[in-house]
Amino acid sequence: MAGIGGNLGTSDALINITYTNIQGSSVTGPRIAGSFTSVQNMYRVAPHVTRNIKNLGLTLEYEMTSADWGTGNFNMEDGLHDDTNTATNHRFLLMMMYFF
Q: What is this structure's pTM?
């Protein structure tokens, strides 16, 4: 399995507006919504190998997920952050299944 996603920004400048957030506070800035609004890029690679021996199944999987999230100033012209930080996660999974 492999996947990639990213924030490509916008060709139109964002507009500063004043609105009330969920907590009831008045906020001035761009009104953006969605999951991972500060993530610039994200990708995941998860290959696995499965071996079946009679009633026994063995699976070995490695997963690497990496995300670049925006830090610093938010650019109102293109909807992207000036700088990014990267976080990478590695996971190994060994699974054994018995079929009866």
A: 0.66
Q: Which domain holds residue 6?
A: 2-98
- pLDDT values of the chain reduced to their tens digit, one per residue, 100 residues: 889 888 777 787 777 778 887 788 887 777 676 667 778 889 999 999 999 999 999 999 999 999 998 887 777 778 788 888 999 999 999 999 999 8
**Ramachandran quadrant class, 78 (left: phi over 0; alpha: psi -120 to 50; beta: rest):** alpha
Q: How many domains does the chain fold into?
A: 1
For residues 5 and 44, what is the distance between their CA atoms, to the nearest angstrom? Answer: 9
